[in-house]
Amino acid sequence: MKRTKNLLMLCCLCVLLRAFTSHAQGLPDNKFGDIYSENIKWSPFPAFPPEARLAILVGEPQKNGPYVIRVRVPAGVILRPHIHPENRIYTVISGVFYIGIGEKFDASKLTAYPPGSVVVLPGNTPHFHWAKSGSYETQVTANGPLGISYVNPEDDPRNKNKQPENVH
User: Fold this and answer.
1) 23 has pLDDT over 70
2) What is the chain's alpha carbon radius of gyration, rounded to the nearest angstrom?
3) With left for phi above 0 and alpha for psi between -120 and 50, is residue 124 left, alpha or beta?
4) Is the model's pTM score more than 0.85?
């Protein structure tokens, strides 16, 4: 009897946990759903500097179709010149978002966008970001698949050489 009660309680806990976590990320774009800011799951993204984080809010960015992601970058971090094949709409959530257009990083080309600003970036436009005055968070709306390629492959964090392991 006690074992059955414990099993039933465990099943109920699993159902509740599934209900909370299934709506925490990647909502489908064709059904009603919601995510509260405290439930956003932030993760590293291999194509970003290691300090930056990405969260998938709506859709599946790796597939064809609409998606919404958020990007959080801490103070001082620079995303070197890169391009995305997809057209993007950035909405600044917090901090000041500095973005410049061009194939070479040039601080004089940066434009500062405060919270609430919206920036349209056509696909294949070389650009760069800098968390110049503090951390920032942006929300990106686009149609996938999401892509990113750096103008200079040496700037791509995915291409950074790992330190050789010490052999004893």
Assistant:
1) no
2) 20
3) left
4) no
